Amino acid sequence: MVVGGGIVGMTCAVELRRRGARVGVVTADEPARTTSWLAAAVWYPVGIGGSERALTFAQDSFDVFAEQAERGVPGVRMIGTRMLHRRPLPADPWWSTAVPGFATEDADDPFTGAWRFSVPMVEVPTYLPWLHAQAVELGVEVRTKKLASLAELTDHARVVVNATGLASRTLCGDTTVQPVRGQVIRASNPGLAVSVRDEHNPGGHTYVHPRRNDVIIGGTFEPGKIDTAPDPDTAEALWSRATELVPELRRARVLEHHAGLRPAREDGPRVELDRHLIPGRTVVHNYGHGGAGITLSWGSARETADLIAQVSSCATV
């Protein structure tokens, strides 16, 4: 039983079902009410360090999304990206080995240079319903129910996958999971085709991610803040920075303002077995991806499935 119907949970459900497991999903929210729904969702390993495990998760996810983009999966495509730097151009990032064609290039003042690369973009309002439909088509039963405890599932499954994000603070007592507030603007697309990032803007982190019919502009990273009402002053600052970075945006219309809470974790994503949380049952945790849920989704789902396969093998022996 997978608990959580966002990108991470539904990816786990599909991966497990494809490997032959009997799978159900319990989700507290419909797709449009999940944290995933608000994500700008461009593949980019933000805020997760450079461990070998993180690289494996990111590489696996990149490869899956690239293949999905090639075969026309709804909501997935490759997008050119420029990461602009205001400081001396650093060495290639740890994740660059996962990205074919990663390169550096010159940039105009006030920038010292740029990284240029092409990565998957996932339009969540299109992709997440497709992923739900894939799960159902494969025979996964999806139920909407808010749980007070993971132990409520002991009569339904031998293995529980905890993909509940921020709710893991209460469902498994992990107080290292904390909300990181992010505010974004959704605007009309005036013809943009390249994603642009300026992480060291003096006013704050700035990105402009054009989708097929709109543009996601961000963003903020505010640890510990839980207010999901968009702040007008923040919105004005985001718009000012974005239009300075990409002047073509001045022709766009602001469509919506959103704020959501990323499920960050001090030690990075938790993907591991837990044999103690529910007596007589195995829990596999998969949460705490912060702003890198899409970027790590398929890789962490494969690790989850591998861990469950180990449990099943031991049980058989």
TrEMBL record:
Q: Which InterPro entries match?
A: D-amino_acid_oxidase_CS (IPR006181), DAO (IPR023209), FAD-dep_OxRdtase (IPR006076)
Asked if the Swiss-Prot or TrEMBL record annotates the protein with the keyword Metal-binding, the reply is no
| EC number assigned by the record | 1.4.3.3
Matching entries from Gene3D superfamilies are given as: D-Amino Acid Oxidase, subunit A, domain 2 (3.30.9.10), NAD(P)-binding Rossmann-like Domain (3.40.50.720)
The catalysed reaction is:
a D-alpha-amino acid + O2 + H2O = a 2-oxocarboxylate + H2O2 + NH4(+)
Keywords noted in UniProt: FAD, Flavoprotein, Oxidoreductase
Q: Where is the FAD dependent oxidoreductase domain?
A: 2-307
Q: Could you say which protein family the record assigns here?
A: Belongs to the DAMOX/DASOX family.
Q: What is this protein called?
A: D-amino-acid oxidase
